[in-house]
Amino acid sequence: MEYISVKDFAEKYGISERTARNYCALGKIDGAFLVGKTWNVPKDATLPSRRKKSKVSPLLAALREQKASKMKGGIYHRVQIDLTYNSNHMEGSKLTHDQTRYIFETNTIGITDEAINVDDIIETANHFRCIDYIRPIGHFAG
Fold first, then answer.
1. 40 forms bridges with which residues in the sheet?
2. What would the mean pLDDT of 76-94 be, rounded to a whole number?
3. Partner residues linked to 33 by β-bridges
4. Cβ distance 75 to 63 under 8 Å?
């Protein structure tokens, strides 16, 4: 049987050498073996198949549904408000939990008798969007 280097295997399939070495080390390439620090890959070896996408978990499905429907009181709603309130509070925001919730639910600040720092309001509104950019609902799995 003829063997090729990891570099040749990687070039053949358009993957990085590191990925090819990892495939060898994990036993994903049949017939590949290590001699010293060098992997020998059978010339006719094929690229391992990729993992199938996992099924959508019930929690992920619920989060997606709640976000799309703008459901109040659900897990998504609660996470947005609590995470934003606690994060901003640690940074010195003077907004109350109820004010944070009101901003999330209505996208307005409401009328109050007390003065509210504009920076706190902007930071809160931006934090809601930030959570969705950092961890979109479609990417909670994995």
1. 33
2. 90
3. 40
4. yes
Helix (H) or strand (E) holding 74: none
**Cβ within 8 Å of residue 81, ≥6 positions away:** 97, 100, 101, 104
Q: What is the dihedral of CA 19, 22, 26, 31, to 10 degrees?
A: 80
82, 56, 50: which is closest to 140 by C-alpha? 56
- Nearest partner of 39 among 29, 27, 24, judged by Cα: 24
Quote the pTM value: 0.51
Q: Which tokens belong to 85? A: 């309130």
Q: Phi-psi category of 100—alpha, beta or left, where left has phi over 0 and alpha has psi -120 to 50?
A: alpha
CA atoms of 111 and 7, how far apart (whole Å): 66
What pLDDT, in 10s, does the model give residues 50-78?
766 667 788 888 888 888 888 888 888 89
